[in-house]
Model the fold of this input.
Amino acid sequence: MAAARGFATPINVRLLRRADVAFINGKNGVIMEVRGKKRRPLVEEFVKCCCSEIRRVSGSGKSVEKFEDRRFDPNKSSNHRGRAPAMPFASSKSWLVSKQEKFFSRCTPRNSGPQSRDSPPKRDTGIANEKDWGISLLNENVNESGTNEDGSTWFRESGEDLGDNGYRCRWTRMGGQSHDGTSEWKETWWEKSDWTGYKELGVEKSGRNREGDSWWETWREVLHQDEWSNLARIERSAQKQAKSGAENAGWYENWWEKYDAKGSTEKGAQKYGRLNEQSWWEKWGEHYDGRGSVLKWTDKWAETELGTKWGDKWEEKFFAGIGSRQGETWHVSPSAERWSRTWGEEHFGNGKVHKYGKSTTGESWDIVVDEETYYKAEPHYGWADVVGDSTQLLSIQPRERPPGVFPNIDFGTAPAPTEEPPESSFSQ
Done:
């Protein structure tokens, strides 16, 4: 399948929701104010506001907050959802601005350019749903640019690419730059389809601000049918990377989710980060086969420039109440002294659990206890949920296939997800 184009995007725009302000779209695109059961148009200056422009400027909804410096503590209980140390990026815009002020500031004339977004994305936010990205493609080809009152420049363009096997890609690209060139952003939205039933929705964003922070992120959502079983599958992925301009700090994330119509669900993430003298890594995954079998695992570790290293990892496998858990916590000092504790559990499904473990300090245990085994055989978010949240993906209209023309199916395997970014991505 054709690879996603190298498109780019912005970051710091929040979706307009009805809960944020007491306004909704009335008939003919006029903004109405809701008061009880009565509706009335706002004053004239707001009636002139371009509603479609507001929707088109919507972004990921991820504003930057003040991060707390979290250190990776190996003594805390392991949890593959746990956060690693946060990277304290500065924000060029105050997040204390009221929600209504944010709304009114976007009420710009129809012919004005897209609004600037110059703040990095958040870490540890996973894969956003399509409605949170606000993907809105233009129906006509556009190629326009301009200069704002403050001297900043902007551009916006859209188009459609066609190819073999009924391939079609509709895209919209936009971006801008401050008057002095210290801040810039780009973003692209796209949708793809072909005659095999393949559908794809995606976003790519990048930018830098006057504080020197730079970032890049992309999100993709794909619907396709398995070539061998004709089983419908939906796959979602997100990659995010950011670097601080003020410190030797940066982070990278790669998230993926895979679902099929028989209930199989697979999720995972790989992360890497650095904050001055400390670096950290984390990987985790979970797989539900849709028939009661569950596999979960986590592996995370960190180190400092002084040579201190520590980590924690665990794995669990279950089916019908029978399974096992095992793990290890470890620490290495600058003088290469190593401490570790390993542990395990065997669950027999009859209320009996065998627990065992030992550490390098001489402690050990090996006991059988009466303990009820608890695990979830179904994911909290599965096939039905992702289908319900993928209405825009499912609504993509492919090109009409001529009679007697059949798609050329590629039986090649998809490339494995990227392991980790090169460390040079975060070097200064």
User: Anything to note?
Assistant: The chain is about 5% helix and 40% strand. Residues 1-111, 422-428 have pLDDT under 50 and may be disordered.
